[in-house]
């Protein structure tokens, strides 16, 4: 595992070797524990002050479980959670309660995360009942009105109930509630996935404005890679409870080294079919394995397109999940800093990937690659020069689609939707390549 560059001086939230498992029990009366579901297994991440860390991956990869552990809803099975360098597990109950004010959560579903029997004013003021020292009782009504105005809602609507608001407005209420106790970190668990595409951009831009105004740090969890590309400064990719690739946003999006990351990027829709080169689509077959019984070796080898190609080059017969190079089936890869040519030298967060053949994945361009002998040693590392420059293997269409600057308005720094007719007004949305609907 590479040493994380974030230190206690610049990391507001840090996790070290974090694991969370759930027991599997059988029996109606005497429930015996027959195994464990390893939802999170050995994750180490650091969130720096005033920055956004994007966490992506398929459903079941452990993203939401990690978020629940970070905010104290779940207790970790192993590992440490540090806030401002202090280990949460070693604190007293009172100190942990006080520390939780600094880490708040914005939930995915704005319909179920708000109590339908409470008015908006009561929902936003609820944190003040839990932390009465946050705002004096006499000033809470004014504080609620200021929070509603801060997130773009009418303060006169404090007596309305959640069902009287739209989905985007409900999510703004959830954000206001999270900001009530003035946290330093917001854990956003897919905050825009349940919203219309025309509203997603408004919420994303609101979060960016709040970050600039209040100096917040975000752990932003999402399925939509286009949204993460727009808002995140660093990106971590999770698969089956582990981080398989991490680094600065340009390094991950323009020069992904893990086969799983390459497949996720390949699955992003492109409006112009001609923009994607033929033969570069990477499809993942089947569903992720059960976290109760993960595969041996590399956890991704049962679905890895690169392992299949390497097996064919080595003359291995068949196309089953275990017809892959022996190294993929037996050796568990760890995050290793990438060698020369990865485009991440000098970056604040080093680019790292957990793959035995990381440079081969980065060099893939749809054509058969040269055979690499099995005894050639590790395929990643600071002293190994890849046969093909990783950047050279990226097709022009993919490279252009994920250019962070290509989707930003130079005047405002926001993502914009280009007008389709001269009389259309430019609107803010996360990414023009994916979110094409206009705000009604």
From TrEMBL:
One of its GO terms (molecular function) is ATP binding. Residues 382-406 have a biased composition (Acidic residues). Pfam families: ABC_tran, oligo_HPY. Residues 13-265 form the ABC transporter domain. It comes from the Bacteria. GO terms for biological process: peptide transport; transmembrane transport. InterPro entries: AAA+_ATPase, ABC_transp_ATP-bind, ABC_transporter-like_ATP-bd, ABC_transporter-like_CS, Oligopep_ABC_C, P-loop_NTPase. Residues 375-440 are annotated as: Disordered. NCBIfam families: oligo_HPY (TIGR01727). This is Peptide/nickel transport system ATP-binding protein. The lineage of its organism: Bacteria, Bacillati, Actinomycetota, Actinomycetes, Micrococcales.
